Amino acid sequence: MQYGHFDEKNKEYLITKPNTPAPWANYLGSPEYGAIISGNAGGYSFVKSGANGRHLRYHFNSNDEPGRYIYVKDLENGDYWSGSWQPVGKDLDQYQSVCHHGTGYTNIVSDYDNIHTESLYYVPLNKTYEVWRMKVRNDGTTARKLALFGFAELTNNNNYEQDTVNLQYTLFISRTYYKNNKILQVINENIPEEQTWRFFGAAGAEVAGYDGDRDTFLGEYRSYGNPASVANGECSNSLNYNTNACGALQINVELQPGEEKEVAFLLGQYDEQGASEILSHYKDLSVVEEELEELKAFWHSKLNRFQVQTPSDNLNNMINTWNAYQCFITFIWSRAASFQYSGLRNGLGYRDTVQDIQGIIHLDHEMALERLRLMISAQVSNGGGLPLVKFDHNPGHEGTPDDPEYVRETGHPHYRADDALWLFPTVIKYLNESGNWDFTNEVVPYSDKGEDTVYGHLRQALQFSLDRMGAHGMPVGLHADWNDCLRLGAKGESLFVAFQLYMGFKIFMEIAQNKNKPEDVAWAQGLLDELDGNIQKYAWEKDQFVRGFTEDNYTIGSWENEEGKIWMNPQSWAVLSGAARPEQARVSMDKVYENLRTDYGTMLFYPPFRKYGLPVALMALFNASTKENGGIFSQPQGWLILAETMIGNGDRAFEYFLNCSPASMNDKAEVRKLEPYVHGQFVESKDSPYQGRAHVHWLTGTASTVMVSLVEGIMGVQPQKDGLRLNPCVPSDWTEFSMVREFRGKKLNIRVENNNGVQKGVSRIVINGEEIQGDLIPVTQLAAENDVLVVMG
Length: 793
Ligand code: IFM
Known about the structure:
Beta-galactosidase, Chain A, domain 5, 29% helix, 20 helices, six-stranded mixed beta sheet, Glycosyltransferase, GH65_N, binds 5-hydroxymethyl-3,4-dihydroxypiperidine, alpha+beta, single chain
């Protein structure tokens, strides 16, 4: 079943049926002022931290309540509804609603009983408050008298856990006031240094009534769907004191036929003076349109740096808007706040963040650089990464997982084997995109002590693994490798990390070569050869690579096993790293296709663990076919697509893309449940009674892996030190497609012809009328704007 569709031109997703199978969300603002909103206006807001700066209440695991509600009451016939379908939930035969989720804004357009409303929600660029602007129009033939009620349920404490569970305390620390068109809430009023202020104000009209007491607004034994003040047509002018607070403001409007009026509600953590200044900015509401345009321009200018036109709308929508936008959201928000993450994590996960950076490098390498520096400065001087990089990370002065203070603050008593190795693919992408190879000479501190150049940091990342090798000459798995549920410890070995290390050596050699350091190249080459020999000797089993070895030499991911016989990642990573011989790549990737592929994506491994015979396989905690226990983990789908493009299988790469693309499930939304415009963390696979159901929306490393696989793999746009390589790997039935790409400040309009229907292989490139040799367009040959013709086949 379909609940909406993409609007590529406007870079929006339109929810046309508001009764979606799960709350379909959008992100407004940034973690400085964060706001999450569903198609029914459910969601919450916070300043800086979802866990410690929360001022708008949301019940996790609930029916998507409460939210940013604007109620409409007909003062003559007594009927009432809401600008979003929920919470009042009018009969959908009479109530039409289209929610436009856009880049940094959401506009819910509704029609009921000849009244047209548009409820626009956004956080102005670089501001720390939110705006809800309602336009209301009388589409009927008689005059109407309406009351509009803006309602924000305020928390009683910035700490959301305290607000939720410690009511013997938090109910008694907040009170509200009403002053000049706004509700002001103060927490800990009697201790000036502890005070927190919030406001909910109205602009564009005079407030006719208010409630600062939630229970008075809702009324006894009533709900968000039928609040007493709305049903009565008037607020009670209540204020809370030792009860729950809210901001509820009533505005009465009279509308002649065809007449439209607008009002705005504003919400934030400001005291009276700050709130008054903000309200005065909205004296003239035309500023709202300006701010909206500014937001769109901000996001669209980033996304427009790479746009494609291919025969697949699915791919176009994902590359051009939604996958790209999700990459920015995961980059900016990390795993801070969603309808599943409540903001409790006090920092950035090392591996997730370093991978998130990859998703935006092709669109904004300057933005990427700052975060990359931070992550390099979170590398310990022994070469490992800090599992969690605290928001107040202080390079040179941090503890390590061996240090009780760090463990107490972060809960991470162990190193992970993979963390710092993620730097290699991310750093090389940054260097090749920006051309700023001097970055390798930049001196960056280590997290605990000392400093080194970026180049030195990379070498030290290799050293961390080299200092921790197991009996088969492969890196040990420590607390985890990419897979959080594989606990191989100080002696068990991980093939995933072995392939990461393999890739690390190759990238290090490339950089060393460019820096003219032949002794370093030779050092890395020797170690690479040794690792390669060990992989070939111990890890290749007939037609697949195994997943690892436990410390007592049990092979994980062997055909001889009853559970977890074949695993996806070692096969795809053998290809990505370059360790797989061509024949190994072919047979092992075929094996994955035959044994692990489903129509909803490819399983992490099969069969799932049920007997829990293997103590290192913590994934047995989860139901079979769920998450790391043989679920369709979404992040590795990107690696699989990329690996297939590397071995020239455009048809299969595209099939894998279609299997995992959220847009593919747009008309099967009742199966997938999650938003059809964003990737989730995983999809239930074939041993689940709910195969195809997806979970954990928005904040997932999938955004970056799939993005990279589409941009560099399928579209084949691969920045190199001296230019841009164009080497697409596409379905054989694509005869023509085009792309617009900004690279090093130059614009390329690229048209690709594939009249011979090949999957990969470029026979000719013509730039501005001049044919070049090979598939690399030298940066020196780029004009400000360039016409490029690529002929495949
Ligand atoms: O790699 C991890 C990630 O860091 C957090 N989510 C689960 C992934 C797989 O275990």
